[in-house]
Design brief:
heterodimer; A: 291 residues; mainly alpha; MetI-like fold; 2 domains; globular; B: 312 residues; two-stranded antiparallel ribbon; 2 strands; 71% helix
């Protein structure tokens, strides 16, 4: 496709470049608007004098949201759940994926089927809720982690990756008298760091974004992670939901305050995004490889 | 594994030897197996409460059996048709409006000559995929709200009436699909870009010799080359009719737009968790899950018949 110098080709090219540029900008515009507004004064927002960057800069909104411990607490909850959840999920996913990647494991296909089937069909919200309840996890932070220990999709990506490693690595380790755990931790994991980093980030983003499980399993408002609090502040403050009786803390927050809360809840994902971006496309494709 | 009992002793010994030899591997997969057993397969067993009047103090074994009563109630309820048509309409929006967008975007991205520019655009359009639905919906709320939202301010500035996008029933579907496009259109290009990358460059050379322009090459070479990927994804999408996203719809749901916004998942949540009708809501979820399973298997069969590897 290189070397097309005709007029029509040039026009096509120019329009294409321009359109994609616009699409890219429009995609991030909402972020920039929210970010900018979070630093604006109430007066400026009310007079609508700006779209992206405020002329008067203030940290009032941030001072306000951090004046009570509510947001700080739920941020800490989210950070804790994300950290522990990611470590736990990686631990159990890597073990399972490696075990299932070994062709000499008898019954491997059957066990694999058990995992894949859970992607096609599940007991649904209520029976899963009852299982969480019966295992005593209701109103515990563990309810956000244990019931979602393994994302089968992520596990398959890891398994596919392990299967792609040269078998000679394992053979030589076996000669040296390593058992399967030794092989996994001394040989396989050090050779799979890019894949492990990618899947860790996938898990971390999922844990950071967790919302449904929190509203299902945690009724104690003090335990809410950031996403639930964000939803309470933005959506319920507008009096828009079924259960608008829940949020009675403060009068409806100003636009700038809402913006600031969104920024705080978004920032961690934005910070890991550059790392995520390095590998994710490859990871997403690996996952679409046949299980 | 019950077959083991009827196997000859030689074979059984062979199996035992294999299990012993790989005891560490079995130990490795046991936490994962235990996890899906407790949180995936036991809930599947729990589906039988949809045939009972389940009371938690009586347990699954002690609760009264009522046969298909809850399913009959569901199919006889006016709610059923509301949920059903809402689901179909949202799905149709996904298929007709959302589905083509990543294909078009991928074709456009593929025509970019500067790798650096391409990567920059990709970085920008992949970003919303990593935002939670709470964030996506929150951002649309602050932008589209009538009190102080930038969009309504602009409308006012241009001399139009303010529109209550968040409360008005007729704006639920446009908002829904707009958010889906914003979050997923960029990310959706990945699989098509990969398919395009595997097209033989000689085809383009040959086309150029024949005097085919850029658009002509796109329509006559790139598009046919990724046709099978498009068809398979389309079929698989159809298998996903019922997966419209609980979180997304629930976050948009409110008492004024319920008539157009309630879908199976949100209905299960409200009847089950809020109203405590555990057996009835499980029946609703069971129906949804069962239809979903049939659709996925059917779609996968169709995809295979089309000469492609299925996903499962």
């Amino acid at each position: 496709m290189v070397g097309d110098k005709s007029w029509s080709g040039r026009i096509f090219n120019g329009v294409n470049v321009l359109l994609l540029g616009i699409i890219g900008l429009v995609t991030v515009l909402p972020f920039i608007h929210v970010f900018g507004s979070s630093f604006a004064t109430a007066g400026e927002i009310a007079s609508k004098k700006f779209l992206l960057i405020p002329t008067e800069f203030t940290l009032d909104a941030y001072r306000f949201i951090f004046s009570t411990s509510t947001l700080t607490r739920s941020m800490l909850v989210s950070i804790g759940v994300t950290a522990f959840g990611t470590i736990w999920s990686m631990f159990i996913s890597v073990l399972t994926a490696y075990g299932l990647s070994r062709k000499d494991l008898m019954g491997r296909n059957w066990i694999m089927f058990l995992f894949v089937f859970t992607m096609l069909f599940n007991g649904g919200m209520i029976p899963t809720f009852l299982a969480v309840k019966e295992t005593g996890l209701l109103d515990s932070y563990l309810a956000l982690i244990i019931p979602v220990s393994i994302n089968v999709f992520n596990m398959i990506i890891l398994k596919t990756f392990f299967q792609g490693l040269p078998g000679a690595l394992e053979e030589s380790a076996k000669m040296d008298g390593c058992n399967d755990f030794g092989i996994l931790f001394r040989i396989i994991i050090p050779c799979s760091l890019p894949a492990i980093a990618t899947i860790s980030l996938f898990y971390a983003v999922t844990y950071w974004n967790t919302y449904m499980h929190a509203i299902l399993y945690l009724s104690d408002a003090a335990k809410w992670p950031a996403q639930v609090l964000l939803r309470q502040i933005i959506v319920l403050a507008s009096g828009l939901s079924y259960d608008n009786s829940v949020y009675t803390d403060v009068p409806p927050p100003s636009q700038a305050v809402k913006m600031a809360v969104i920024v705080v809840a978004t920032l961690p994902v934005l910070l890991v995004y550059p790392f995520l971006q390095k590998h994710f496309a490859k990871g997403a494709l690996l996952g679409s490889v046949k299980a | 594994m019950n077959n083991q009992l009827t196997m000859s002793s030689g074979k059984r010994a062979h199996i035992m030897r294999n299990i012993l030899k790989n005891k560490w591997l079995y130990l490795m997969i046991s936490p994962g197996l235990l996890y899906i057993l407790i949180y995936k397969y036991i809930p599947m067993y729990g589906l039988i409460i949809s045939f009972q009047n389940y009371k938690s103090y009586q347990g699954i074994l002690g609760s009264e059996w009522v046969g298909f009563e809850h399913f009959e109630r569901l199919f006889g309820s006016p709610d059923f048709w509301m949920i059903f048509s809402n689901t179909i309409i949202l799905f149709a929006l996904q298929l007709l409006i959302f589905f083509p967008i990543p294909i078009i975007l991928a074709l456009m991205l593929n025509e970019l000559r500067s790798e650096k520019y391409k990567r920059t655009v990709q970085t920008l359009i992949y970003l919303p995929h990593f935002m939670s639905w709470v964030i996506v919906v929150s951002i649309s709320f602050v932008i589209f709200t009538v009190d102080g939202g930038i969009f309504n301010s602009l409308l006012e500035l241009l001399g139009f009436e303010k529109i209550n996008f968040l409360l008005k029933e007729e704006w639920f579907r446009p908002m829904y699909i707009l958010q889906v496009i914003w979050r997923e259109a960029g990310w959706g290009t990945i699989i098509f870009l990969a398919a395009i990358a595997s097209v033989d460059p000689q085809l383009y050379e040959a086309a150029k010799m024949d005097g085919a322009g850029r658009i002509r090459q796109m329509v006559s070479i790139t598009l046919p080359a990724i046709k099978s990927v498009i068809i398979v994804l389309l079929i698989l999408k159809i298998g996903d009719v019922l997966e419209l996203g609980f979180e997304h719809v629930y976050l948009l749901l409110n008492s004024t737009n319920r008539q157009v916004a309630e879908i199976f998942d949100t209905y299960v949540y409200v009847t089950g968790i809020h109203q405590g009708q555990l057996s009835y809501s499980t029946a609703v979820g069971f129906f949804k899950g069962f239809v979903g399973l049939v659709l996925v298997i059917g779609a996968n069969w169709l995809a295979k018949k089309h000469g492609e590897d299925g996903i499962y």
